Amino acid sequence: MEAKKSMSPIQWAKSRKGQKALICVGFMIIPLLLLFVFTYFPFAEMVKFSFYKMKYTTPVEKRVFVGWKNYIDVFRRDDCFGALKLSLFYVAGALIQLVLALYLATILSFKVKGGNFFKGLMFFPYLISGIAIGFIFKFFYTRGFVLDTILQWCGFELENLPFWLKDQAVNNWSLVATSVWRYFGQNMVLFIGAIMSVDAELYEAADLDGANKFQQFIYIILPSIKTIVTLNIILSITGSLSAFEQPYVITDGANGTGTYFVIMNEIAHTSQKVGLASAMAVVLLMIIFVCTILQNLFFKYVFRDASSEDESYKAKKARLKAEKAAQKAKKGAV
């Protein structure tokens, strides 16, 4: 037998196999190149900037290397660390938002009159621009305007009402309420999609065993949608740590409402302390990374028995089918 002739590079490129390989590589290179140019390279530059004392316009040769000083300042400066602590308000709001979204999703995932109308109504705020929502609620919370007028109709005196955007006892909660109003519809829709994918025969099996609605939620719905629950919590917590639009538009960070992103924006673009702002961004990334790992570990522990519960209901489902088949067989014999 004659040895197979090896193809030249040009012949290989013209062959079907070569064209397949080139197309695959081409489709991979373009997105990877864009990802590198617009994501990884800027991120690497930001990490590099975090070790320098510099402004945007500072020439490369005049940048002062300060090592870890910027990272230490993030935790020493009252404005930076205080803004980080302020994120706890938004984390608490995110948890309330998730509970509310899961509760409404559980109700609306079953046949309810006007269910589709309510789904659309509650999802609509998520479609509105964050800047527009900021201006709406700035007007809503202004002294003597919408909220104060409604409360006066309910019998409250204007003099006894707080300044919703100035009083530091309530202003952060006012902004958190705005965030909850905007985002809970998105979480609700994700929960509804997950709940509706649960096999209806599992509910029938649970009914046969005498399980009430709460037990069905705990042992069927919650284990079945654990992936979406984990995803929503991760997204909500990371979003809470990076809250920007509402406090920036409504209060501009005044009266103790400056979140981490608002302070970082001020340090980077007003004070021109690019190194410190870059260090703040890296610290926030590390915090989000740690929070994500802890959440995954927590939910692995919480849902450690979910698979076994799920298996038991699969067995019940099989039993239910067997009982139905037996009943049909009896009817056929008669």
CATH architecture label name of the largest domain: Orthogonal Bundle
How many helices? Answer: 15
Q: Kindly identify the CATH topology of the largest domain.
A: MetI-like fold
Give the CATH superfamily of the largest domain: MetI-like
Mean pLDDT: 83
Described by strand count, sense and barrel closure, the largest sheet is: 2 strands, antiparallel
Q: Care to describe what's here?
A:
Helix content is 75%, strand content 1%. It folds into two domains: 11-65, no CATH class; 71-333, MetI-like (MetI-like fold, Orthogonal Bundle), CATH 1.10.3720. The protein is built from 15 helices and two strands. It has helices spanning 9-14, 16-49, 69-76, 78-108, 115-127, 130-141, 146-153, 171-196, 200-208, 213-224, 226-241, 245-250, 260-270, 274-302, 306-333, and strands at 52-53, 64-65.
Keywords:
MetI-like fold; mainly alpha; 334 residues; 2 strands; 15 helices; flat; two-stranded antiparallel sheet; 2 domains
Q: In short, what is this structure?
A:
This protein is mostly helical and 334 residues long. The chain has 15 helices and two strands.
Q: Any chance you could write out the topology, listing elements then pairs?
A:
Layout: H1 9-14, H2 16-49, E1 52-53, E2 64-65, H3 69-76, H4 78-108, H5 115-127, H6 130-141, H7 146-153, H8 171-196, H9 200-208, H10 213-224, H11 226-241, H12 245-250, H13 260-270, H14 274-302, H15 306-333
Antiparallel strand pairs: 1-2
Helix pairs in contact: 3-14, 4-8, 4-11, 4-13, 5-8, 9-15, 10-15, 11-14, 13-14
